[in-house]
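Appendix B. Raw example, untouched.
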Amino acid sequence: MAHLPKDSKGVEVMKKTEKSYLAAPLHAEIIERCWGGSKNTTVDDVKAKINNFLKEYVVSGDKKEAFRCIKDLKVPFFHHEIVKRALIMAMERRQAESPLLNLLKEAAEEGFIYSSQMTKGFDRLIDTVDDLSLDIRNARGILQQLMSKAASEGWLCVSSLKSLSVEPEKNTIEDSTANSFKVKTQSIIKEYFLSGDILEINSCLEQENSNNCAALNAIFVKKLITLAMDRKNREKEMSSVFPS
């Protein structure tokens, strides 16, 4: 948190999270349990199952089987991950866009995915669209099209979503600088997850952000948390320790 402005929203959220969840014993497990599921099922397991059934659905087109997989996951409060991953797959593989949107549409209409989870899935993607733009050309524009289509078909309430402008907002730093820093940040974080050496990673971060730019520090913290959520409990706990 030392890398963020004291009065920023990020600091407020992190303090609340630390007090409510991260200070408790086995906090990673507590957070996972908040999403639903059994003690024998990890977040990584669920994400792998989501990826697998979405890929199988794109090939087979079998909605009934896809809905069975959703039901069998037994994680209703983690269904936003299904939405997010389906949308990313649709953005990466444009030929899969129509069947995946149809799946989400029917899942919403049949009650397999609640509207709150549908909104949350889109919001998660809005939060990471700039990072996606590094790998998916015109990611922001494509996401805007998907949102418009979903809204026109009646299974997404756009007014409940976070704002997404067609053009990214102007940052206090140049886009080229931010993009270069994001790439370097990913390597720094992966090295941290491997070594666990906070002092060394701090040194690398200071070297890449010698002017202690608040915007770059915010990018680092966001990337750290995003990468940690796709990893195991060890990395999740490491991400909660580092910003402090």
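End of appendix B.
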